[in-house]
Specification:
By secondary structure, the protein is an alpha/beta fold. The protein is built from 9 helices and 14 strands. It has 2 domains: 92 residues, 2-Layer Sandwich (Alpha-Beta Plaits); 152 residues, Rossmann fold. The radius of gyration is 23 Å and the shape is elongated.
Length: 294
């Protein structure tokens, strides 16, 4: 059995609260968003915090006295900490690896594309299969932006094409492109961890070094793509529009995601200067834009 003390505070007081918990021997301290303000894509080595934070402190069962002491500190009116919604609960011991695995299942995208975690039984059929486990880099297919890109690839196989995956994350789109017939993919990301993840995942999927080559953006070779994939965020997509379109052949396709519905108009206005036949698809609060480079 484990004991949890949960409270809400702000990023200004979080360091003092965390220090107090550490001094009392807490097993772990978890910070999460208390106000539904997601941190979508922090820069490498950046650890941004939300303004309003839920702090969860975990103690071992025999540390009940330590939990009570922390609770007293948090409710002590002499302390200037802004703390609210304090409560405690018992957390039963579980096989956490099993719980994590149970939450990640095979997923289908479009008619023929599937993603399987490594522990799943993979059927011997004609479908296109990607083996991928959750990891440190973005992209498992669970987020609508990734799912929409995978569905587009399934409906528009890039057979024989040269592809750029800009903001490759886990490499999921690059791997899908190769599995669906692309000749070669250049994968790039600002986060070195993403390049490590991409290289690892391509090996796990039996893809050769020559089929997917990964670079940091500043190290990318000059190359003209038949298909440009960029599942990042609206701000970078807007600022990178000239570069993304200049790296795509005239008549080539561009597929952009990572964009909220309310950002659709600014994205369209930006890319109308470079593309025609612009179309949007929607999934929940997110949109995917496709276009043909002029």
């Amino acid at each position: 059995m484990w004991l949890q003390l949960i409270c809400q505070s702000t990023k200004h007081f979080e360091p003092e609260i965390s220090e107090a918990a550490e001094n009392l021997g807490a097993a772990s301290i978890t910070l999460s968003d208390a106000a539904d303000v997601p941190v979508l894509e922090p820069l490498p080595n950046e650890t941004p915090l939300w303004d309003e934070i839920i702090i969860t402190v975990l103690f071992r069962e025999e540390q009940k006295q330590a939990l009570e002491e922390l609770k007293q500190q948090l409710t002590d009116k002499r302390e200037p900490w802004k703390v609210s919604h304090i409560h405690q609960e018992i957390l039963k011991e579980q096989q956490w690896e099993r719980v994590w695995m149970d939450d990640f299942h095979p997923m289908q995208f479009g008619q023929n594309l599937w993603i399987y975690p490594s522990w799943s039984e993979i059927p011997n059929d004609s479908s296109v299969k990607i083996k991928l486990d959750p990891g440190l880099a973005f992209g498992t297919g669970t987020h609508p932006t990734t799912a929409m890109c995978l569905e587009w690839l399934d409906s528009n196989p890039p057979t024989g094409q040269q592809v750029i995956d800009f903001g490759c994350g886990s490499g999921i789109l690059a791997i899908a492109a190769i599995k669906l017939g692309a000749k070669h993919v250049l994968a790039t990301d600002i986060d070195p961890q993403a390049l490590v993840a991409t290289d690892s995942n391509k090996v796990n999927n039996g893809i050769s070094e020559e089929q997917i080559v990964s670079y940091l953006p500043e190290d990318m070779p000059e190359l003209m793509a038949d298909l440009m994939l960029a599942n990042i965020l609206c701000g970078p997509l807007v600022s990178l529009a000239p570069q993304l379109c200049a790296s795509t052949k005239q008549g080539g396709q561009i597929v952009l995601s990572g964009v909220l519905k309310e950002q659709q108009d600014i994205l369209k206005a930006t890319y109308e200067n470079h593309c025609h036949d612009i179309q949007f698809a929607t999934s929940g609060d997110w949109v995917r834009m496709t276009g043909i480079v002029s």
